[in-house]
């Protein structure tokens, strides 16, 4: 069939005078309809066909003699002759065929539009037959569709038919005709003006005819009413007088009277009647046609009508089980465009999509997931799980059929609803890497950002994107920076690439993108974590040796700064801190110029790690200076911007302001402590040396926890370890960044900064408050159940809840319980939670106070025996029991946790 249509089109194009010009308009329209039905689009043939049809349409207008008019009247009796006049059906068939072939011809469209408008105005066409309503709706749909198709030949000539003369297969006679036609068309206005004028008049007359005679509406079924309504909606947009698209100032003399009346004014009554007709006939549509109604309603914008939505919802729920995958995808995409939030409607469609998932193609799965997740924010767990299975299951593997753009949308859909599928994320990362040059750096960056939102980390993909970070534009650069900051992953060379990109792309970035980049630099460098690094101390325990605080100060995130290829976490691991402590005291001696050249082999082995550690510390200081510079530049950008334009909806902006305030707050605490009298300082140091973890002043003095049982005071800022040897003190990160940040913060509007910090506290309270409430409720329920169980079983068996917890914990606890031979009765418990500010940052605590009845025979002076016994209670990741003797002890433990900023091990 293709060969037949192709050969016929080539022959008709080559011999147009013999094959096309002898035919009439009705025969030409039937030929165009045949090619449209076959879907065969041969542009040279269509160019010649529309040229001949336009010439025949304009021939009666150029006829001036009565002889030609008489000949045309005589030919009316012979409809099949080439001289037969144009009919309503012929014009509608021609326009519909051109619309289905997506071929735009300005001359023919304008001529057809003028003729149809004149026929409707004169009353020659009346709604007396069923096919007339069908062809009117088809003509309106075709004209609106052709108006939306860009005219390909508009740029090469003034008229739509000017480019036909460049076809090499056109004979000489046809070429002369085309040249003459182009010469005549040069005197008339552009084809756009003529087509717009004719279209506005056509839609005006059609709406008026429907308003005057409602019989037109009763001749249309549901699909035809939807076509007509969609066309009227499109015409109201295209021929809006305010946009100036219907008429242009340079209108010709012939069309100037018409140009004043070409604007189309919508008629709400006509549109309402068509909408009611379509809604009343929706039950007659099959699932495929119902999906078409969805698409038309969404595109035209009348799907928001309540009656239309109710009809669509009713018909969909009635036959949802019979809908195939393609109509389902169209329905879901249409509802996403309309932003429908009906839970019952969406749930039924999501369940149907889940059931049809095995029959869906890759592009259909992508449309469904993207519509539900990104557009509607509707989460249906079985649907997303089934899609992940179909994308990764061997034998189906829809993921292997997706290009890079589809992978971006797929990962974004799962990230939008927070649905974690490890296998799908891994296959997506492998697929985007496998595509290589077929995927752009922006697409790889988008996949990394989506994986980061799900907290999924693919090291090969992260390393590949890190190598491209320096050449990314501002948008993808901000996404990549935020992703690496969220994952706390820093491969080799990433930090330097981000700093260089910040220097080159800073002027092109917006405030939101700058905030994301600076926040990532803060996280990857460890600016705030460096403050906590002074707090944690060595070994990770609260009862550490005296060198613990010095370890944290001397090894300020050394391993993270080394940029290991595996991407170390932002936090320092305890064993690496111990190594840093071992090499820190001797690094200054080993790297000094006075080192003797005659060193033993063992000494040379220890020099290399010490030099490496010293270089790493120098690199850390340089990175902290670069971080301080980036933060100061961001704060200066805020100072030069109106506070109303600050990115208040971006959480990175709040976190940066909070981080800068915490850093400067810490420096203020240090200066305040240095201003204390000497006696108070010594008392603070003594408190730290004695192992008291509750001294806030001691912890703030050097930023570390107090000394351990050995009495080696590392918490008071001393210059020796537990053995009395001198120590090398390295300035922490906050000491490098605090001074420039304090000056930059002072330039910001105080009220705006305070407002941002208060809003940040409120957001954190809103996020952490419900969590603390849930934890407190769970603990309260457990304790209430324990008290009820103890009250019921204590008198019978003596096996109480608390006694069983101790007995099943471990052997030591069982021995202690057997030795004590005491009945532990839980008499009461109080659970409270609240938020507090610590160094300007917000934290939430849950406090548990337990009232116990313990039948112990304590010896004189042994007041801590019950507490030693209760210290053997098991602690798990899901629940923990905290027992305090009095309210004073509970308050002291709470002060402990505040003073050590969640980092020390001495808190309650």
Question: Could you characterize the architecture of this molecule?
Answer:
By secondary structure, the protein is mainly alpha-helical. It has four domains: 2-272, no CATH class; 302-512; 528-592 and 602-748, no CATH class; 768-899, no CATH class. The chain contains 41 helices and two strands. Strands 1-2 form a two-stranded antiparallel ribbon. The longest helix has 44 residues, at 750-793. The termini are far apart.
Question: How are the elements arranged and paired?
Answer:
Blueprint: H1 2-14, H2 16-19, H3 25-38, H4 43-62, H5 66-74, H6 88-100, H7 106-122, H8 130-148, H9 172-185, H10 191-212, H11 215-218, H12 222-238, H13 256-259, H14 268-280, H15 287-300, H16 306-318, H17 325-338, H18 343-355, H19 362-375, H20 381-392, H21 404-417, H22 422-435, H23 441-453, H24 459-466, H25 474-487, H26 494-505, H27 511-525, H28 527-536, H29 548-554, H30 558-561, H31 574-590, H32 601-639, H33 651-674, H34 678-689, H35 696-702, H36 733-746, H37 750-793, H38 801-807, H39 811-820, E1 824-838, E2 841-854, H40 865-870, H41 887-899
Antiparallel strand pairs: 1-2
Helix pairs in contact: 1-4, 3-6, 4-7, 6-7, 6-8, 7-10, 8-10, 8-12, 12-14, 12-15, 14-16, 15-17, 17-18, 17-19, 18-20, 19-21, 21-23, 22-23, 23-25, 25-27, 26-27, 27-32, 27-33, 28-29, 29-31, 31-32, 32-36, 33-35, 33-36, 33-37, 35-41
């Amino acid at each position: 069939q293709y060969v037949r249509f192709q050969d016929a089109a080539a022959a008709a194009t080559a011999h147009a005078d013999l094959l096309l010009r002898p035919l009439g308009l009705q025969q030409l329209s039937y030929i165009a309809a045949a090619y449209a039905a076959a879907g065969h689009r041969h542009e040279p043939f269509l160019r010649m066909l529309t040229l001949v049809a336009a010439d025949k349409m304009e021939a009666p207008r150029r006829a001036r003699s009565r002889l030609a008019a008489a000949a045309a009247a005589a030919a009316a009796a012979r409809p099949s002759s080439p001289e037969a006049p144009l009919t309503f059906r012929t014009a509608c068939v021609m326009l519909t065929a051109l619309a289905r072939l997506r071929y735009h011809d300005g001359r023919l469209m304008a001529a057809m539009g003028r003729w149809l408008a004149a026929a409707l105005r004169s009353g020659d066409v009346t709604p007396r037959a069923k096919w007339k309503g069908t062809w009117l709706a088809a003509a309106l749909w075709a004209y609106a569709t052709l108006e939306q198709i860009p005219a390909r030949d508009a740029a090469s000539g003034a008229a739509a038919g000017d480019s036909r003369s460049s076809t090499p297969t056109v004979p000489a006679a046809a070429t002369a005709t085309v040249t003459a036609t182009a010469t005549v068309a040069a005197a008339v206005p552009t084809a756009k003006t003529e087509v717009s004028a004719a279209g506005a008049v056509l839609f005006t007359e059609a709406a008026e005819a429907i308003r005057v005679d409602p019989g037109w509406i009763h001749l249309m079924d549901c699909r035809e009413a939807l076509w007509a309504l969609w066309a009227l909606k499109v015409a109201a947009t295209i021929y809006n007088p305010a946009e100036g698209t219907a008429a242009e100032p340079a209108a010709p003399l012939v069309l100037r009277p018409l140009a004043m009346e070409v604007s189309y004014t919508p008629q709400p009554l006509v549109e309402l009647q068509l909408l009611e007709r379509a809604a009343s006939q929706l039950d007659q549509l099959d699932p495929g046609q119902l999906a078409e109604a969805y698409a038309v309603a969404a595109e035209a914008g009348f799907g928001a009508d309540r009656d239309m939505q109710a009809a669509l919802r009713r018909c969909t729920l009635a036959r949802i089980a019979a809908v195939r995958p393609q109509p389902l995808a169209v329905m879901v995409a249409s509802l996403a465009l309309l932003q429908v939030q009906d839970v019952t409607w969406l749930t039924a469609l999501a369940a149907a999509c889940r059931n049809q998932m095995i029959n869906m193609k890759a592009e259909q799965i992508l449309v469904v997931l993207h519509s539900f997740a990104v557009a509607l924010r509707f989460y249906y767990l079985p649907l997303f799980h089934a899609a992940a299975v179909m994308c990764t299951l061997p034998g189906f593997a829809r993921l292997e059929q997706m290009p890079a753009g589809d992978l971006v949308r797929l990962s974004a859909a799962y990230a939008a609803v927070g649905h974690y599928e490890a296998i799908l994320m891994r296959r997506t990362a492998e697929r985007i890497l496998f595509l290589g040059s077929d995927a752009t750096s922006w697409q790889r960056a988008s996949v990394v950002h989506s994986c980061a939102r799900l907290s999924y980390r693919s090291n090969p993909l992260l390393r590949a994107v890190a190598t491209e970070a320096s050449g990314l534009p501002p948008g993808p650069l901000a996404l990549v920076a935020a992703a690496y900051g969220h994952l706390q992953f820093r491969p080799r060379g990433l930090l330097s690439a981000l700093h260089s990109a910040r220097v080159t792309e800073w002027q092109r970035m917006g405030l939101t993108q700058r905030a994301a980049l600076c926040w990532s630099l803060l996280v990857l460098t460890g600016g705030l974590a460096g403050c906590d690094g002074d707090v944690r101390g060595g070994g990770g325990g609260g009862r550490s040796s005296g060198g613990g605080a010095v370890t944290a100060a001397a090894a300020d995130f050394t391993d993270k700064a080394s940029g290991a290829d595996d991407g170390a976490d932002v936090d320092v691991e305890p064993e690496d801190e111990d190594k840093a402590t071992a090499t820190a005291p001797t690094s200054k001696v080993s790297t000094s110029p006075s080192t003797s050249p005659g060193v033993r082999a063992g000494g040379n082995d220890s020099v290399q790690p010490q030099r490496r550690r010293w270089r790493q510390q120098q690199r850390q200081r340089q990175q902290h200076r670069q971080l301080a510079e980036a933060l100061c530049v961001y704060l200066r950008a805020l100072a030069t911007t109106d506070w109303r334009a600050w990115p208040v909806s971006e959480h990175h902006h709040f976190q940066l302001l909070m981080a800068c305030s915490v850093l400067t707050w810490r420096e203020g605490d240090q200066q305040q402590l240095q201003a204390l009298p000497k006696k108070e300082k010594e008392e603070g140091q003594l408190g730290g040396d004695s192992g008291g973890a509750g001294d806030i002043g001691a912890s703030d003095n050097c930023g570390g926890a107090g000394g351990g049982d050995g009495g080696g005071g590392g918490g008071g800022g001393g210059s020796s370890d537990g053995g009395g040897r001198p120590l090398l003190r390295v300035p922490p990160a906050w000491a490098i960044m605090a001074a420039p940040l304090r000056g930059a913060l002072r330039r910001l509007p105080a009220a705006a900064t305070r407002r941002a910090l208060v809003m940040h506290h409120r957001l954190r309270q809103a996020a952490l408050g419900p969590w603390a409430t849930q934890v407190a409720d769970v603990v309260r329920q457990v304790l209430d159940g324990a008290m009820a169980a103890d009250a019921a079983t204590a008198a019978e068996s003596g096996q109480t809840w608390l006694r069983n917890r101790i007995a099943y914990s471990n052997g030591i606890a069982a021995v202690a319980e057997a030795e004590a031979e005491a009945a532990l009765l839980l008499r009461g418990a109080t659970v409270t939670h609240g938020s507090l500010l610590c160094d300007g940052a917000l934290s939430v605590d849950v406090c548990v106070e337990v009232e116990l009845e313990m039948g112990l025979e304590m010896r004189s002076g042994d007041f801590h025996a019950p507490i030693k016994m209760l210290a053997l209670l098991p602690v798990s990741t899901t629940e923990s029991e905290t027992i305090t003797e009095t309210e004073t002890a509970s308050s002291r433990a709470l002060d402990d946790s505040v003073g050590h900023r969640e980092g020390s091990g001495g808190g309650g």
